[in-house]
Write a structure and sequence with these properties.
This protein folds into 4 domains: 199 residues, Rossmann fold (3-Layer(aba) Sandwich); 155 residues, Rossmann fold; 48 residues, no CATH class; 87 residues, Alpha-Beta Plaits (2-Layer Sandwich). 36% of the residues lie in helices and 15% in strands. The protein contains 20 helices and 18 strands. The strands form 3 sheets. A 7-stranded parallel sheet has the order 3-4-2-5-6-1-7, sandwiched between helices.
Amino acid sequence: MPFPDTHPALGRALAARGYAEPTPVQAAVLEAEAGRDLLVSAQTGSGKTVAFGLAAAPVLLEEAERFGVAGVPLGLAIAPTRELALQVARELEWLYAEAGVRVVTCVGGMDARREQRALAAGCHIVVGTPGRLRDHLERGNLDLSGLRVVVLDEADEMLDLGFREDLEEILDATPDTRRTFLFSATLAKDIVTLARRYQKDAVRIDTVRRDEPHGDIEYRAVRIAPNELENAVVNVLRYFESPSALIFCATREAVRHLYGSLRERGFPVVALSGEMGQKERSDALQSLRDGHARACVATDVAARGLDLPELGLVIHAELPVNKATLLHRSGRTGRAGRKGVSVLLVPYTRRRKAEMLLNAAGVDVTWSGAPTVDEIRERDQVRMLEDPILTEAPTDEDLALARKVLEGRSPEAVAAALVRLYRARLPEPEEMFEVADRVERGERPVRERAPNVEMDDGVWFRLPVGRSQSADPKWLVPLICRLGHVTKKDIGQIRIFDRETKFEISREAEARFREAVAGAERAEMRVEPSGPPGERPPPRGPRKGPPPHRKGPPNDREPRRGPPPKGAKPHKRPRA
């Protein structure tokens, strides 16, 4: 049995799943003094679900080999999101399978009447979200009188999402004799306050190593031009070719746009956002687990609590708002001893913010440009030559068909056809603007000369990006075309300064250009009207009307006229 001092039924389940040794949090829980509550701080993906399943076994099963007849629940696990609650239920089902467990889930977005019938039929463990559990409790569907163990999973997220009142009502309805296990990524003040109220003589376990970042996650920051976000996502996906990848966006609209763009390019991708129904979300997650989809575009809220076993790549298509979000997003990969990669796409205009974010998170990051087409092709070649299809022993049927294929064809022609078939299933990588190495050293990059198209009556505009942000006509021209719905021929002269760029638009395209940029949502790349480079403000004409009132006290050259202001002391001449 790989885990010492474990209930025999659970030990057999762990061995069948290939668990060789416990993770740090699992080992700490098993070593804790029996009969006491647990207050545990552990990283995402550290095996917390199995940990509290192991800790609860002596209380739920006592000396019995299997559970008795299902009745009122003996155990209750509360999670912040639907996906996490369903994941916890699946983990407990296989862990307690040989003990004859019956697990019922109560989560928002599912059929409440079916849950009511399942609770009435009896169970051993209930897993749910705070809101739905409270609803069943208030309706009399959920009887907590026989509860022996309560588990709060990711308690910090539940408090962040506003579930404090729901949690308190649920916990107040449980017996005083219960044991309470509280698991949280951080032990903030509000978590400790909750623990003091509902736990008795708890053992505090902290397995989070704050002096160093997650060792199983490799962080990379990729410099990109502001208008090449989608191309960068494509090339990062193609370069790493992870079994599954998670791509984070800031808004639902951004999720829809990037999802459509990747689908158009041929990527097997799904989307997750708060506006989707439960069936759509469940279908999307099942596609990822089955391997039918290789990537998921999601918002931060939709991705809370996700656990995808084969997730090897996280892409931050839009920068996280703070270090906690950065670590939470990245923590979806590198779980349970597996390696993972977290890639931040950093436009030149957001370089400083990204550096501050990474420094605050305390992670070691490698900066680079986006993967190039040649680098992706080279990796494709290595992956193809190492593909198991070339090393597997052929069957007799395979050999017979191979001989027919070779009839009248050379081996080189057959191999070339195999290469074409391999490449046909892969979306094409994108050509991207490359940055010279001297940009990394803080030097000015060598630039191609800006377009200098003569326009008799062009209209000037400005962008808030210049030499300090590595502005270059190579990516400025496509950016202007996309923002303003114009073509390259509509753009005249471009003048790049330290902190801004001025450019000329033809008079024929001015109206549609103004209309398009007025609706642009990217505040950092806002386009504004401007005068030509070097144009001075018009001279002032002759002053009309009375002179403006001068503020401040009069001086010796311009004595005050008229009566002194109200409350002022009369001026006295000094005596001779």
